Amino acid sequence: MMQRMFPPLIVLAMIFFVCAPVFIAWAPYESTMGLVQKIFYFHLPSWAAMFVAAIVCGIASVVFLFKGRVIADRIAVASAELAVVFGLIGLVSGPLWARKAWGVWWQWDARLTMALVLWMIFVAYLLLREYGGPGSEKLAAGVALFGMANVPFVYWSVNVWRTVHPTTNVVPTLVPGMRGALWWSLIGFLLLYALAMMARVRLEEQRATLERVYRELDD
Amino acid sequence: MKRFFAVAFLIMRKDLRVETRSLELFLTTLFFAVSSVLVFAFGFVRNGRPVENAVAGILWIAIAFAGTLALGRTFERERYHDVLRSLLLAPVDRPAIYVGKLLGILTLLAAVEVVVVPLIALLFQAPLFRHPVLLFLLLLLGTLGFTAVGTLFGAMLVRARSRDVLLPVLLYPITIPVIIAGVRGTAVLLQPEMDLAIVRAWIGMLAFFDVVFITLSLWTFEPVMTE
Q1: Among A26, A172, B183, B209, which residue has the least CB neighbours within 10 Å?
Q2: A118 found inside a domain
Q3: Cβ-Cβ contacts under 8 Å, B170 against chain A
Q4: Nearest CA in chain B to A150
Q5: Considering only alpha carbons, which residue of chain B is nearest residue A114?
């Protein structure tokens, strides 16, 4: 199923990718921040993709942990890697905006700290898988579960604690031109995540097949 | 349920008996905590006076460092004698083993804190004991949250390679909410006019994270420890 859906989805993703700059350029300028506000169309979707990846990784890890399904583990590792990548995009684009809007690259406030912590959890997940030796998939699944438990805290930390980061209420108050561009970018990023995950799962499957063939040759 | 706690209690007693006979972990962890306090003293003391609000941070970093060391050493000892495998073979609830180990490490860290906390109060002229009950709650809930995750990870890393470096790498990002709440709560306690509502909020947050962490640990201990 995944393989058949891949080509049309990639075409769709290309359409999103090609049109996104146009929509972002068309979107009205924000009155106080001007051009730098456009990072927002990159920043929010990348964190959204990061959160989706984190949650998928957590759910897949639970399935792997309790049901032992290998496919779940492959989805988990693919999502964890993508969570790190999208998180890195968010961590780079955020300070670029903050330098202009707040005057500093980084603020140790609740939301930024929690987002950084969440990103570090998934880096730790990958480190464990890479250097933990045989059997570390299962241990990493346990880590991913704790990582997923962190996601709601990041989302709500901004509303519960005092923070300088724009709150989640900002999105519904956007002017229509901005909202369209934002949704377009958001769907594009989520599509990119889905495609990259499918490709990564397939790579993992083929790696396992190759391993099996090698072993059979040896016997 | 009664059996569950009986098993947990037995495992805790076993750990504490091994510990009281050698005092290896207690003395090394304690001395490590004191040594790290010494390092902070050089970093955070200017002209003989500690930097404002540094004490809360020093206290919790010392606890986190000492806790990591104790967790690593506890499970290293188990690995050396293959005790954990034997425990897992025993016909008892796996979560009971987890609770037993958790209680053992918690007692050990409590013993370390009994020495380290007054020492920090003394060395940095900090009025830590002005609100003893609140301080006790912060320390108890904070240490519990930290060791709840630490015990699970320490136990599961027994089988992994490069476990000594992976334990802090995994433990610190995940327990950072606990450390934040502990440091912030303690910092409020140290202010001349303490705001009880804020301390309560941090204690509530610690309790909340403790519940989440312990529930998740109890839930995952069994599948994670099954080979």
Answers
A1: A172
A2: yes
A3: 124, 128, 143
A4: B174
A5: B177
Identify whether the C-beta of residue B36 lies closer than 8 Å to the C-beta of residue B65.
yes
- For A71-89, what is each residue's pLDDT tens digit? 999 999 999 999 999 999 9
* Facing residue for B216 by CB, picked from A135, A139, A145: A145
Report residue A122's pLDDT band, with 50, 70 and 90 as the boundaries.
Answer: very high
Domain count, chain A: 1
Mean pLDDT of chain A, nearest integer = 85
The average pLDDT across A103-127 equals: 87
Answer whether residue A151 is part of any domain: yes
Q: Mention every residue, 6+ apart, whose C-beta is less than 8 A from residue B224.
A: A65, A138, A139, A141, A142, B152, B155, B156
Task: Phi first, then psi: give them for residue B26, nearest 5 degrees.
Answer: -60, -50
Please judge whether A142 and B166 are an interchain contact, meaning their C-beta atoms are less than 8 angstroms apart. no
Residue A1 lies in a domain: no
Q: Is residue A99 part of a domain?
A: yes
Average pLDDT, chain B: 90
Distance CA B58, CA A35 (A): 43
CB contact under 8 A, A146 and B174: yes
Strands B45-46 and B49-50: antiparallel
Q: Is the per-residue pLDDT at A109 higher than 90?
A: no
* Domain range enclosing A120: 41-161+185-212
Average pLDDT over residues B75-87: 86
Neighbours of A97 (CB within 10 A): 18
Question: Cα-atom radius of gyration of chain A, to the nearest Å?
Answer: 19
Q: What is the pLDDT of residues A10-47, one digit of tens each?
A: 888 888 888 888 888 777 777 677 777 788 888 989 99
* 8-state DSSP, B46: E
Q: Which domain holds residue B200?
A: 2-225
Q: B20: buried, middle or exposed (CB in 10 Å: 19+, 13-18, 0-12)? A: exposed
Dist. CA A92–CA A74, nearest whole Å: 27
Long-range residue pairs from A154-158, CB within 8 A, at least 24 positions apart, any chain: A154/A51, A154/A111, A154/A114, A154/A115, A154/A118, A155/A51, A157/A110, A157/A111, A157/A114, A158/A110, A158/A111
Closest C-alpha to B156, from B212, B103, B109, B216: B216
Number of domains in chain B: 1
